[in-house]
Amino acid sequence: MGDNEFAYVKDAFDTNWIAPAGPSIKAFENSLKKFFHVEAAAALHSGTAALHLALINLNVGQGDYVLCQSMTFAASANPIAYQGATPVFIDSEKDTWNLDPELVRESLEDLKNKGITPKAIIAVHLYGMPAKMGEIESIASEYGVPVIEDAAEAAGSTYLGKRCGSFGQMAILSFNGNKIITTSGGGALLSNDRHMIDNARFLSTQAKDNAPHYQHSHIGFNYRMSNVCASIGRGQMEVLPTRVLQRRANHDFYRDKLQSRSGITFLNEPYGHYSNRWLTTILVDPEKTGGVTREHLRIALDAVNIESRPLWKPLHLQPVFADEPYYGNGVSEKLFRNGLCLPSGSNLSKDDLERTTKVILETLETVTTPQSA
Ligand SMILES: *Cc1c(COP(=O)(O)O)cnc(C)c1O
């Protein structure tokens, strides 16, 4: 937390706005609009709720198809299933680990031949690294399919100088506790189309028609953010630029200490891609480390109470999505096999970072090389 979150929360208590309504929600939404350069924003219960409402705005329903990045957290695809639609999983390219534009084109062409036009494409900026939005948006518009930007991990990232969260027809953010800024739990839907946001706000507050009594013509949801959480969000928006610098400094530290090691690689920022480096990730190639795998590193870190994690398991490999259509190229499976997320909190001290890199360096040296020709 920064310096002002608690003061805003106290203000919510002092004014008794302990409800999913109140002045902090408007103030938080205004700060989102300003920072992300969008026309409209709705603060919601979670990033997942925002994505759900985005799909409803695009009339996604039973029998529809939605393209979704495979290499991501399950929340990117779950709302497709909530709507009874079919997710079509698309593999990643190697430069950003996000939607491979060539595979997007291939899948759209293939579906077109089957008489299918997907209702949306969900593009994710994994670990904060912006996807190749230029190519993705131009292919999407060629086929007349709207893009929803899942910017849950990418608050503060930019692509060609434009903020992640301001692309596509709509974008979602997450303020879950693990994200670069948090409201404990929360999310937002952003768009330059005010109608989309107005409708999302309407649906998020139980779809109450304009009447003195309770009248409903649509199925609504209870997806609005609490005024208390929005108060935290106001303070967090003030420190977001600092948090980005802190995360990037973590990344630079790890890179400086580890990148000269054979078999350890970092994801570079392609031209025009500026990542918030939400999480610092490495790829471990056992053929070049003398047999050390990412699991060796993870277990060695865990033994001294340092938590690290494999990258997201691709959704096409998840039991719950195993039967869904998938257009692949092997990239996400390789990332999952070799990738590790390192401790990346904004509040890590230099000692913390040094302790982690020391364990990694020692493990790289101590694991013996397996027999090889
Ligand atoms: C966290 C996350 C979400 C979901 O956000 P919640 O606020 O936790 O519902 C969606 N997509 C991605 C890529 C995420 O990392």
Rg, Å, rounded: 21 Å
Helix content: 25-40%
Number of strand segments: 15
Number of helices: 11
Tally of discrete structural domains: 2
Q: What are the segments in which pLDDT stays under 50 over at least 5 consecutive residues?
A: none
What's the helix and strand layout?
Blueprint: H1 5-14, H2 23-36, E1 40-44, H3 47-57, E2 65-69, H4 78-82, E3 86-90, H5 101-113, E4 120-124, H6 133-142, E5 147-150, E6 158-159, E7 162-163, E8 170-174, E9 187-191, H7 194-204, H8 227-258, E10 264-265, E11 273-274, E12 281-284, H9 294-303, E13 309-310, E14 326-327, H10 331-338, E15 339-341, H11 350-366
Parallel strand pairs: 2-3, 2-4, 3-14, 4-5, 5-8
Antiparallel strand pairs: 1-9, 6-7, 6-11, 8-9, 10-12, 12-15, 13-15
Helix pairs in contact: 1-8, 2-8, 3-7, 8-11, 9-11
The structure holds pyridoxal-5'-phosphate (PLP).
Structural features, described:
It is a single chain. The radius of gyration is 21 Å and the shape is globular. By secondary structure, the chain is α/β, with parallel strands linked by helices. The chain has helices at residues 5-14, 23-36, 47-57, 78-82, 101-113, 133-142, 194-204, 227-258, 294-303, 331-338, 350-366, and strands at residues 40-44, 65-69, 86-90, 120-124, 147-150, 158-159, 162-163, 170-174, 187-191, 264-265, 273-274, 281-284, 309-310, 326-327, 339-341. Helix 4 links the parallel strand 2 and strand 3. The strands form three sheets. It has an eight-stranded mixed sheet, with helices on both faces. A four-stranded antiparallel sheet has the order 10-12-15-13. Strands 7-6-11 form a three-stranded antiparallel sheet, with no helix packed on it. It is built from eleven helices and 15 strands. The longest helix has 32 residues, at 227-258. It folds into two domains: 5-239, Type I PLP-dependent aspartate aminotransferase-like (Major domain) (Aspartate Aminotransferase, domain 2), CATH 3.40.640; 240-366, Aspartate Aminotransferase, domain 1, CATH 3.90.1150.10. Bound molecules: pyridoxal-5'-phosphate. Pyridoxal-5'-phosphate binds next to helix 3. The site of pyridoxal-5'-phosphate has 14 residues, from helix 3.
